[in-house]
Design goal:
By secondary structure, the chain is mainly α. It contains 24 helices and no strands. The protein starts with a helix and ends in a 13-residue tail after the last helix. The relative contact order is 0.05.
């Protein structure tokens, strides 16, 4: 047998017998042959029947003769497709991968359909399922993305695709507000890195910072920072630009959220310089958006630098696999920048775009956009309209879960309500901020003497 034939012989030893039997039967019926005609002098009719019913595994020599008689190939019976069809399906997946990287998740999804509907080889089907899950995430369909990723992560495959799926699943759980599952998924994947020989990969660093982000969102700040520093050390050891950028980026977010804005800007700029060496436009755009946000938080805001980064991020988002969430966060940053620049009309327009895109599924982003409307009204001296916007923000935020980001928004709302003289509502917002972090008010009883 040739080298190719020997590879097929290896597949013959592992192929699912009912699958092989169905292919033999379908090809025989398409040719209009009986089992006896297929058997010839090489096997009994009963033996061909047992092959077709999935109860016998023929040797390679017999299966080649069966393939000749039913006018197909050994490759067709073992793979489900011939070499030309396999090359065509592989090309479709290549195009789907390119579409995903170019910010066209719908095209990527369409490219996976034919492979998944076809009787394709397992490696092509697995690749198609992986691409489909990432495309669903990119399209903002978190529920279906989570379902698809859960199946991929549950499969005992190992390998980089498995790790990328685990990272995406943890990230999707976090984006949907399910921080407990985000952390469980990340920690489970971390525990298997050595087993799958993935501990020294770029993706291992990405997993660490994804897990750190989930801990940080839940309020486990100290543990999140430790994980992030560990990831930075690991990335420095790998000498990988992408791994370093991922670690610096997440460290920047944590520094920013803890009020160390100048340190956050420095780390984000380091990450951008590293990502510019790569071709990952989505992450570069997301990081530029984050840097823009952070520069707006400086005292005084670095408005010109922030708007320059946001303008570049917009171009990169157009050429990447950015999700609707990425786009909404970017528009929100632009709205904030326009407000700080005194352009109230453009700030309001951008905020309206965010509200329309997020109010149904992303209440935290919608709340921030509604708050901008309140600040615009307050800036104009219209306290009543500002109060109405802040009340709308309260109703929207009430639909969100209790986590660190929600607590921060409640706290900011408290300050804004206090500024316009709504003391009782401000106090309620501060109480909700405390509740979102898990704090409760203790009541102590005193005896009167």
């Amino acid at each position: 047998m040739s080298h190719v034939d020997s590879e097929l012989a290896g597949l013959l030893r592992t192929i699912d017998l009912p699958t092989l039997g169905t292919r033999v039967r379908n090809a025989r019926l398409a040719k209009g042959l009986t089992q006896s005609e297929v058997a010839g002098e090489d096997a009994s009719t009963a033996y061909i029947s047992r092959i077709e019913s999935g109860h016998r595994r023929p040797d390679g020599r017999l299966l080649e003769k069966i393939a000749d008689r039913i006018d197909t190939t050994l490759e067709q019976l073992l793979h489900g497709i011939d070499a030309n069809q396999k090359a065509e399906l592989t090309l479709k997946l290549d195009y789907a991968e390119l579409a995903l990287a170019s910010g066209k998740p719908d095209d990527a999804l369409a490219g996976t359909v034919e492979v998944l509907e076809h009787d394709a080889p397992p490696e092509l089907r697995t690749r198609a399922r992986h691409l489909r899950a990432l495309a669903l995430e990119s399209a903002g369909d978190l529920d279906h993305a989570i379902g698809a990723l859960e199946e991929l992560v549950a499969a005992p495959a190992g390998g980089l695709d498995w790790l990328v799926s685990a990272i995406a699943l943890s990230r999707c759980y976090r984006e949907s507000g399910d921080l407990a599952r985000a952390i469980d998924t990340g920690e489970n994947a971390m525990s298997r890195l050595e087993e799958y020989d993935l501990a020294g990969s770029d993706e291992a660093v990405q997993l660490a910072v994804t897990l750190a982000a989930a801990h940080f969102e839940r309020g486990d700040v100290a543990h999140a920072v430790r994980l992030c520093h560990r990831a930075i050390d690991q990335a420095e050891g790998l000498d990988s630009p992408r791994a370093k950028a991922s670690a610096y980026w997440n460290a920047s977010v944590m520094e920013s959220n803890q009020g160390r804005v100048e340190a956050a800007v420095s780390l984000a700029q380091k990450a951008i310089r590293l990502l510019e060496l790569d071709t990952d436009n989505r992450n570069l755009a997301r990081l530029r958006t984050q840097l823009g946000w952070t520069q707006l938080r400086l005292d005084p805001p670095a408005l010109e630098d922030a708007e320059a980064n946001l303008a570049r991020a917009e171009r990169e988002l157009d050429w990447s696999s950015a999700s609707p969430t990425d786009a909404a966060r970017h528009r929100l940053a632009q709205a904030r920048a326009r407000f700080l620049a005194g352009d109230r009309e453009e700030a309001a327009r951008r905020a309206d775009e965010v509200i329309a895109a997020t109010q149904a599924d992303l209440p935290l982003l919608a709340t921030e956009a509604i708050v901008i409307h309140g600040q615009i009204a307050a800036d104009r001296g219209d306290a009543d309209r500002a109060k109405n916007s802040y009340r709308e923000a309260i109703l929207t935020l009430s639909a969100a879960g209790a986590d660190r980001q929600a607590a921060q928004l409640w706290f900011e709302l408290g300050g804004l309500l206090e500024e316009i003289g709504s003391a009782d509502e401000a106090m309620d917002a501060y109480r909700r901020a405390a509740a979102s972090t898990g704090l409760t008010v203790r009541h102590t009883s005193r005896t009167q003497v």
